[in-house]
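Researcher: I'm preparing a figure for a lab meeting and need a structural model of a single chain. I don't have an experimental structure, so a prediction will have to do for now. The sequence is pasted below. Please return the structure as tokens so I can convert it later.
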Amino acid sequence: MAEYKKSVATVDPVWQRVCEEAVQAIAAEPLLGGLIHSSILHHPSFERTLAYRFSLKLASGEMSEQILREIADEAFAADDQLGQYARADITAVLDRDPACNRYLQPLLFFKGYQAVQAYRIGHWLWLQGRRDLAYFVQMRVSEVFGVDIHPAAKLGRGLMIDHAHSIVIGETAVVGDNVSMLHSVTLGGTGKQDGDRHPKIGNGVLIGAGAKILGNIKVGNCCRIAAGSVVLQDIPNCKTVAGVPARVVGEAGCDQPAVMMDQMFEREA
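Model: Understood. Here is the structure written out token by token.
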């Protein structure tokens, strides 16, 4: 008699919760049934859902939904980290954004999360040498979401971009893990120099709305950048900076400012 081995089911708590929330959402609002079925329940995995959303949102007369879906499916099949980073990012949004109480919201409605996942596919294309296609993804992300991230930029996992309007991240920028930024943040260069010209953001950094961080400078781990600041110099670890130009005004206030999202500070004497 043939022997059969029991297969071990893959445990994916994020995907399981997404599906449970999708069923609950349809029960609460049946008019969203078509959207939720086509976007989530029709698919066998979180990665396939992300690929579908990528193709649906970025399709245009210049590039069909079918072609974009094939690109995304290829990327997720080739690089397991894309799915891992997507789970870390969506968990970061749920954990840090008080307006978010379900995984379903970023996946369907939050342009910051959707823009970052599209960038990640564009970055994968860039690393494969498919640079014109990566530029196309960058262009469509900018047109659709108002978020302009160069595909060569390096963004770590657990990234939350809240509201995400008018975000600009340059070619040689590096962003660490577990970073939070609000709308209208710029990680840009200065002047016309080539080469390494954009900021390097450490882990656990909180960047307030409208902050501009310019040039090949380093922002240390677990710093806070106050809203509206213009940062032109290196910042040591665990500091709060504010002003134009920004200067150190105190300590970071907690171990993980990007997680706590606390933007209030007391100016040191």
